[in-house]
Amino acid sequence: MIGAGPVGLAAAAHALARGLKPVVLEAGPEAAHAVRQWQHVQLFSPWKYNIDTAAARLLAATGWNSPEPEVYPTGRELIETYLAPLATRTELRDVVRTSHRVTAISRAGFDKAKSKGRADAPFEIRIHNGKGEAALQADAVIDASGAWFSPNPAGHGGLPALGEAAHAARIAYAMPDVRGAQRSRYAGKAVAVLGAGHSAIGILIDLAALAEDAPGTQAIWLLRSDDPAKAFGGGSADQLAARGELGLAFAALVRSGRIRLETGFGVTGITDEDGKLQIIAAGDRSVGADELIVATGFRPDLSLLAELRLRLDPAIEAPEALAPLIDPNEHSCGTVRPHGARELAQADEPGLYLAGMKSYGRAPNFLMMTGYEQVRSITADIAGDKAAAQRVELKLPETGVCTRGGLESIAALSGCCGGPAPSGVDSCCADDAKAKEAGRSGCGCS
Questions:
Q1: What is the DSSP string of 235-259?
Q2: Which residue of 50, 83, 206, 266 has the fewest C-beta atoms within 10 A of its own C-beta?
């Protein structure tokens, strides 16, 4: 298993349960290294969707107390309550190897062009472990290394914007902790956030909350499309309630003017003018800001698999059989059919599977519980239990896209029109609902 995140550790737990001999190679100094980069973020899904069944069985043997199933954990709580104990207090402590960065994988003795006898050769995994280069062999490989450390660039055509690299010191990617560890960087600044998913939304909500006690903080939303409505999500219809509430609260902030919105803003260049970033879009449009946060999703790093024969969708860079099921042009996380080994196996490299966020390529609609179902099926397939590999043991919640912002910030907003309207009430926000209940036409937030 490559990666000791939630999905990689779950894969190892399922492998142990089937009598296999897992080895988990983690590039970071501790398990869940990528999760530690977004530990300030609250998840969309409650605990009942974030704990793998095989992992829970390992933890139960240690006297572990399962968290309340309906509580929404932060990334930090996910680590402290679940992932760290799983990696260090169960049988997995003997199979997780930290500071082991995988640099390349091939078939032992076979380059990519050589065919005869290829499928019978073991995989050779090259690693850097702090002492230098090393190699080990395996009968099967589950790549669950994720995509957190390969974010998409700011440029609207998939390439970095002109000047993006030159101004890297004032550009951050994914979800920086703007109200916590990196508060000093963003407080009192004009901060532009590029993106349409819930990562961007969470950052913008955090910036609006930061402006409450740090005068001069300005949140600017740069949206590539012309219509912000999709970013507001499924609202009260969303089966993941925290995700729906986030979208409602964000919509209220935008309507109130506390977040400046620039639509149709495809970034082409970034320059510096009098110490301020000038973020440029087509049509001679530009926005000035002190900092830019790029929350435009991720793409898989396929370089370590370059010597293997992969069948990936040319657009999404997901396994060919999986790509039509997760195409973000057609699907949200709730409309993705549960899938497993059949969709994730590489026909030209028997024993190789992409899993977790890595398997989704450039699609943003991945859920942790989807990854758990993937590796349950994959380990069954490796063990020869084809019936279990083909069986579906997961039902997904409906609506919305599936990255996450900081819902806890909503409570910190004394304005925000009072927060989202109650479920089932025809109002744009909480204050509007109260005004109409009192017989007025509304509060003006619409």
A1: GGG-SSHHHHHHHHHHHHHHHHTSE
A2: 266
Contacts from 68-72 at CB under 8 Å and sequence distance 24+? Answer: 70/46, 71/46, 71/47, 72/42, 72/43, 72/44, 72/45, 72/46, 72/47, 72/242, 72/407
- Rounded distance between C-alpha atoms, residue 419 and residue 434, angstroms: 11
- Token pair 């435009």: residue: 296
Spatial distance between the Cα atoms of 147 and 149, rounded to a whole number of angstroms: 6
The length of the chain, given as a count of residues:
446
CB 228 within 8 A of CB 297: no
- Which position has the token pair 């998409």? 152
pLDDT at 303: 96
Q: pLDDT by residue (tens digit) across 371-399?
A: 999 999 999 999 999 999 999 888 766 54
> At which residue do the structure tokens 């002190």 appear?
290
HSE (side-chain half, CA atoms, 13 Å) at 339: 25
- What tokens were used for 54? 């095989």
pLDDT band at 404 (very low <50, low <70, confident <90, very high): very low
Count of H-run helices and E-run strands, the chain = 12, 15
Q: How confident is the model over 310-360, as pLDDT tens digits?
A: 999 999 999 999 999 998 877 655 556 779 999 999 999 999 999 999 999
CB 145 within 8 A of CB 3: yes
Half-sphere exposure of 393 (CA within 13 A, CB side): 20
To the question of pTM greater than 0.90 for the whole model, the response is no
Q: Which residue in 396, 379, 334 sits closest to 17, CA to CA?
A: 379
Q: Kind of pairing, strands 171-173 and 123-128?
A: unpaired
Single-letter amino acid, residue 233: G
Q: Confirm if 174 and 75 have CB atoms less than 8 A apart.
A: no
Question: What six digits make up the tokens of 114?
Answer: 């050589």
The upper half-sphere exposure of residue 413, i.e. CA atoms within 13 Å in the direction of its Cβ, equals 29
CA–CA gap between residue 382 and residue 169 (Å, rounded): 45
For strand 291-294 and strand 285-289, is the pairing parallel, antiparallel, or unpaired? unpaired
SS3 345: strand
Contacts (Cβ under 8 Å, ≥6 apart) of 393: 338, 373, 376
